[in-house]
Design brief:
The chain starts with 18 loop residues before the first helix and ends in a 22-residue tail after the last strand. Helices cover 20% and strands 20% of the residues. The strands form two sheets. It has a two-stranded antiparallel ribbon. Strands 2-3 form a two-stranded antiparallel sheet. A hairpin with a 2-residue loop joins strand 2 and strand 3. The protein is of the alpha+beta class and 90 residues long. The protein has a domain of 58 residues. 0% of the residues are buried.
Length: 90
């Protein structure tokens, strides 16, 4: 087994230079999902953990129930900002 085999971005001097960007992107995606969805365990009880590499995981996986959240707060239109907005510089 190699020292960095189970680390997704490696480590040490040869660590992936994209780790900061991908970590930030992961937080944005997860934050967006958690605003719009509610997750709950499909099975009752506590799953039996097993060691897989460097992390503990449920022995038979983790089935989740996903429910959409209907918010009363209006969401901003995606057309208001970003690449769609143009400015006349003349």
């Amino acid at each position: 087994m190699k020292p960095w085999e189970f680390l997704p971005f490696g480590g040490g001097a040869r660590r992936c230079i994209g780790i900061a960007l991908s970590s930030y992107e992961m937080m944005l995606v997860l934050g967006t999902l958690l605003i719009e969805l509610r997750l709950s365990a499909a099975a009752r009880g506590v799953p039996r953990p097993v060691l897989r590499g460097m992390v503990m995981v449920p022995e038979d996986g983790a089935r989740m129930r996903v429910r959409e959240v209907h918010s009363r707060v209006p969401r901003p239109s995606p057309r208001l900002g970003g690449a769609e907005r143009t400015v006349d510089a003349s």
